[in-house]
Amino acid sequence: MDHKPSGSTLPWAEPPWYTGHPSPYYNESHVKLRGFVRKWVEDNVAEHVEEWERQGIVPDEAYQKFARDGFIVPMACGNSIPKEFSNYPIVAGIKAEDWNGFHDLVMWDEIFRGAQSISSAFVGLVVGAPPLKMYASPTLQARVLPEILTGQKRMCLAITEPSAGSDVKNIQTTAEKTADGKYYITTVRTGGPGPAGMSMLLIPRLPGLKTRKIEIGAGGMGATTYVTFEDVKVPVEYLVGQEGLGFKYTMSNFNHERLFMAFQAVRSARTCLMDAMVWCLKRETFGQKLIEQPVVRHKFGHMARQVDALQAWMESIIYELDHLSHAKGSQLLGGATGLLKVQAGIVIKYVSDECVKLMGGLGLTKTGQGARIEAISRGANAFLVPGGSEDILLDLGVREALKLSFKAEKARL
Ligand SMILES: Cc1cc2nc3c(=O)[nH]c(=O)nc-3n(C[C@H](O)[C@H](O)[C@H](O)COP(=O)(O)OP(=O)(O)OC[C@H]3O[C@@H](n4cnc5c(N)ncnc54)[C@H](O)[C@@H]3O)c2cc1C
């Protein structure tokens, strides 16, 4: 389709298709979604976001408005919305059966454009809901999903422990079945050592479960929390899927989490490019505008080539995931999505650092023309570790690629 320009006309401030370039990925419903979300965020989020940052939370009423206006179901689902969820509102009136990975990207991209720090408030939902949707029994889903999808309850995915982060197989928290078989007493290792002993439990706020917020430098809305489970009595019906498959469920959940981080990195990088370009077009030093200095244009060139390449790679992975089953997508693209997330972290770190320098002192002030760049550069390290750290994902990407290559070679013999 022919795309009319939308958003800023400054170079690299928007994805290429926003500026009128043709793209095979987007249709009328993506355009409709883009317009709806942009206006909705302007009307309902933009003026509150600073206050929410100070409070350290999106208040319940606002969170529930996200649900009423159709954001929570897509956030919980990623690139496809099951038809059973058609009864819930879906943003911009998009039909569940029409929703795809590019709707997911457009929705988040427009949210991040208006409120770059807000992602943290929804991370628990984005990474916690998919295993429930995919693996929990119909009874458990019927019991808990309505409250989650209407924004009455929030959730998180608690894997990392003080003694095990990258090394997920070695988590220590244990859960034992009671003699009558009706309860697990606290998550998560339900068997022996290693992955086969791991299960996934949904644990409501029962006696023995305590939480304490951990402050993160990246922004006030960070939902990172220290959770302890002490003799929590979890009904056996709250086991997600099958006992012993917790490690598999955890691993198969990462594609979307890592893509989601890439969405955020790309928009944050474009925001930096836009604000820095506005500044360099007007700031004069030594009798010239900054943009008139070749060295400044080189900086933009180096940033632009990385951001547009990241966007193109991200879109091709979204397309591939849209055309594969969940299982096949995890198998074929688990490594590639890990490498994409590494690239997203490297790009946002590079771009935000370069833009801080271009802004001069304004790049370090929390108010004024450099405020968004300052906030993004402060949060850039948060792209490097969560969701799999750089070293771990580089290694994973190569191991997965070799595994696929050996398999293909064997099949040819
Ligand atoms: C903002 C934020 C949000 C988070 N959200 C969640 C969440 O929602 N749920 C959750 O469960 N966890 C969450 N985490 C935790 C996060 O997933 C872990 O911090 C991450 O997986 C790394 O684990 P770790 O901190 O234990 O580091 P470690 O595993 O101890 O690693 C430390 C360093 O050593 C490197 N390293 C480790 N092993 C190797 C190796 N074999 N070879 C080479 N290098 C290696 C790593 O790359 C890393 O650089 C969050 C963390 C942050 C900061």
UniProtKB/TrEMBL annotation:
Query: Has the keyword Flavoprotein been applied to this entry?
Result: yes
The protein's required cofactors: FAD
Residues annotated as domain Acyl-CoA dehydrogenase/oxidase N-terminal: 28-152
An example Gene Ontology molecular-function term: acyl-CoA dehydrogenase activity
Can you cite a GO biological process for this protein?
A: fatty acid beta-oxidation using acyl-CoA dehydrogenase
Q: Which domain of life is it from?
A: Eukaryota
Domain named Acyl-CoA dehydrogenase/oxidase C-terminal is located at 246-399
- Entry coiled-coil feature ranges: none
Annotated Pfam families:
Acyl-CoA_dh_1, Acyl-CoA_dh_N
Q: Name one GO cellular component term.
A: cytoplasm
Keywords tagged on the record: FAD, Flavoprotein, Oxidoreductase
UniProt keyword Oxidoreductase, yes or no: yes
The family note in this entry says: Belongs to the acyl-CoA dehydrogenase family.
- Under what name is this protein listed? Acyl-CoA dehydrogenase/oxidase C-terminal domain-containing protein
Species name: Oidiodendron maius (strain Zn)
